[in-house]
Design a protein that fits this description.
With about 500 residues, the chain is mainly alpha-helical. The protein has one domain. It contains 23 helices and 2 strands. It has a two-stranded antiparallel sheet. Helix 9 crosses helix 21. The N and C termini lie far apart (about 60 Å).
Length: about 500
């Protein structure tokens, strides 16, 4: 209980409370704006955390993370354009409410669904993470490598466009993760005599280049969302009644467990939970014809599920050091910059940080709900922000933040390099999700791979003689082969 008390005393400092409110609102605003996201909010505000105490920085980062996921429904309901991919299915019925002149009802349902999905899922995750961490301490290096490899390949095979391009992204991520000094033999790799590269590429540089600079330049070049037009709807305020909540209680409970389970699976995340929960709610409804016409369950189901996936995604991240989705990978990267390494030993070595993450997330979830419930009337003003003024500000802040981190202009040139790389990846439709996941997990995979061979008496055979490792490697091979078999069968 001492660590819980330490976390509570940190979180309820006036300065920390102020930062959590700030992070929640900024994350929610960027999550609501189409083209931006909670992940970009983490990248953008990451530099201001460099000089903070790690506990305070983690509290701010988790509030940005929760706020970013929570804000996606606002534009989905008011504009018919999801702010993030986590709110794709919310458009179907949420926007219908707006077209019928009842946006307040849909916004009230979504705001409540956010709180119901986020807060209980974080409580469940806090308990399950400890259980899984106790088990994970017992697995060896070979098992851990196979688990990380399985997680990365699973993300690759979930790419809808092309598995081969996902593998390219995976290879690029592992390559960039290898730049610098080898973690085992301490030899230089791919540094080309440049001393600045001996420490590898700073995670902040990679994230800002790929997820901030590249996206903004692509949006600007294509002329997307640059007119500054906003939603012209009238919102009355929070208007959900207890009776309406109880009528959908079955959908709410089912969607919560769907979101929690889907979020736990590596690579799935809120988007899959959002779509799957909506489909299941529609197929199990007594009146499926009402879905798509402005149905309450059509808003409850996707929004409860995508927020419940937050707790699910944090379980493997905290307990195993493996992110559940792309946004969680960015969150994990930000924590690594603070010197916090997630995984089985986190509960033993730095337990107070665990409680800061979960209790800070719960507090952020409450703040987001209050902000959405009482600030609902101001939502349309968010979409009147001219993007041609917003984007330059974000770019300038990104470069200033990168320079501030190490006080070297070389990092700014590296950001330009990764911006160009991000644009090239976008042009060839190479996904960034597998890249960032492979980049984050690359050092962990390499260290455990080499340790597994070093500690075993039978060399590389340890990956096949260890039961868990053999099963995971078999599943990995099946994941890689199945899409190609499926494509051949379709041709035939």
């Amino acid at each position: 209980m001492g660590f819980v008390g330490d976390a509570i005393s940190t979180l309820f400092q006036p300065g920390t409370i102020g930062l959590i409110i700030f992070g929640s609102l900024i994350g929610m605003i960027l999550g609501a704006l189409p083209g931006l996201s909670g992940g970009m909010a983490i990248v953008l505000l990451l530099p201001i955390t460099f000089s903070m105490d790690p506990s305070v920085a983690i509290a701010l980062l988790v509030s940005i993370y929760i706020g970013g996921i929570s804000g996606g429904f606002i534009s989905a309901i008011l504009l018919g354009i999801p702010g993030t991919s986590n709110s794709l299915a919310t458009v179907y019925d949420g926007y219908e409410y707006t077209k019928k002149g009842h946006p307040s009802k849909a916004l009230s349902i979504a705001a409540t669904a956010n709180a119901i999905g986020t807060i209980p899922s974080l409580l469940v995750a806090l308990f399950l993470s400890q259980v899984i961490a106790r088990w994970a301490i017992k697995i060896n290096a070979a098992d851990y490598f196979s688990l990380a490899l399985f997680a990365v390949v699973l993300v690759v095979t979930l790419e809808k466009n092309d598995v081969l391009k996902g593998l390219f992204a995976l290879a690029f991520g592992l390559f960039f993760a290898m730049v610098g000094i080898s973690p085992i033999s301490a030899t230089d790799r791919f540094t080309f005599g440049v001393n600045y590269l001996k420490g590898g590429f700073n995670i902040a540089v990679v994230m800002i280049g790929l997820f901030s600079g590249a996206i903004i330049l692509i949006e600007y070049a294509t002329g997307s969302r640059m007119d500054g037009s906003g939603a012209s709807v009238q919102i009355e305020g929070y208007s959900l009644k207890l009776k309406e909540f109880l009528q959908s209680i079955g959908t709410i409970v089912r969607s919560f467990f769907i979101g929690l389970f889907v979020g736990f699976l590596p690579g799935m995340g809120g988007t899959v939970a959002n779509m799957a929960s909506y489909s299941i709610a529609k197929s199990s409804s007594k009146h499926p014809e009402e879905f798509g016409t402005g149905c309450a369950d059509g808003v409850w189901a996707p929004e409860v599920a995508n927020n419940a996936s937050v707790g699910g995604a944090l379980i493997p991240m905290i307990a195993l050091g493996i992110p559940g989705d792309g946004t969680t990978a960015l969150f994990l990267s930000a924590m690594m910059i603070q010197g916090v390494t997630t995984g089985p030993l986190l509960f033993q070595n730095q337990p107070s940080y665990v409680y800061v993450i979960f209790l800070g997330g719960i507090l952020a979830g409450m703040i987001c709900f209050l902000g959405q419930a009482f600030g609902m009337k101001g939502f349309p003003a968010l979409f009147k922000i001219p993007y041609q003024y917003l984007y330059p500000v974000i770019l300038v802040l990104s470069f200033v933040g990168v320079f501030t981190a190490n006080s070297t202009i070389f990092d700014c040139f590296l950001v330009l390099l990764f911006i160009v790389f991000g644009i090239i990846m976008s042009y060839f439709k190479i996904p960034t999700g597998p890249f960032i996941l492979a980049y984050v997990l690359g050092p962990t995979m390499e260290t455990n791979f080499r340790n597994g061979v070093s500690f075993a008496g039978n060399g590389y055979m340890v990956y096949l003689t260890s039961p868990l490792s053999a099963i995971l490697l078999l599943c990995t091979v099946l994941l890689l082969v199945f899409p190609f078999i499926k494509k051949i069968r379709r041709r035939n």
